[in-house]
Amino acid sequence: MIVFPVPASTTTRFAVAADHVPHDLGGLLRDANGPYAAHIAGRIGSPQLEVVREDAASLRWDPRGIRAPRPQDRRRERAFQDASEFAVVTACAPITDQPRAVQVARAAALHLCAALGGVPADLVTGHVLTPLAEERTRFVLADQWLGDVLPPFRANGRCTAPDPDRDPEGVNGCSCVRLRTRGLRRFGLPELQITDVACPHDLAALNVLRTTARRLLADHWSWLSTGPAGRTREIDADVPLTQADFSAFWGGHRAHPARPSPFQVRLTLLTPRLLAVAPPDDVPGTVNDWLCGDTLPLGMYDVLHSPRAA
Length: 310
Fold this sequence. Notes:
The protein contains eight helices and twelve strands. With 310 residues, the protein is of the alpha+beta class.
């Protein structure tokens, strides 16, 4: 079993970079429309929705640390990093108010983005947000909540292992890829990490993390709904997963045929805020043997982006 602390509240922050950010940001938000308008109006000015204007010269965070998760967003990355003014939206809310609290905060940031003609970013994931028309009412983890991106293939040229297409031992030709989520902590869960992955199997490894995150988050909200008195949670180290969990990560859009039985991952507590994801103990071989085997559901080898971000 694994035991980890569950915070009473969490904080999430979004920022909008623009050429000119007015001081009366509350006035702009009071003009918000859409499904979150009433929530924004009811929360603004409280810890659940604080909005401030910040100048680049006095920031306590570094815009240069904000990156584009996709190559086509590099121009927006540069615009964010070079901006002189920002609108920063902060939501500090009880863990039982999730995911509504973070959705309201991001809806507010997207409204400010449209009003100011700016570039929004998630300061928890450290990523520029791909433009969304508005925050949808149904929570879908694939909607840029997880900070789930792949490193440059072959470690951007730093991987010195043989080309797997020419190496008969290419399944385990290297182990240079380490993937980690950034975003689960705002829901009161530890982040997830998988390591020692070979370059050719990075996408399958990423989708294992995504599927595990979706399963753990669904179970976490079920646990919170029971009103637990304590601030620690105990979960099984062996987590069964199915094609349905992978589809649920995307909001149910992926319709690959299901495997006849679930597959499992093994969790290890590295720190109170980080869990390692690995194959079950009874699976022979390396993590790469497992990733390239016939255990994982169809689609894990070729699905990278959400349909909304395509």
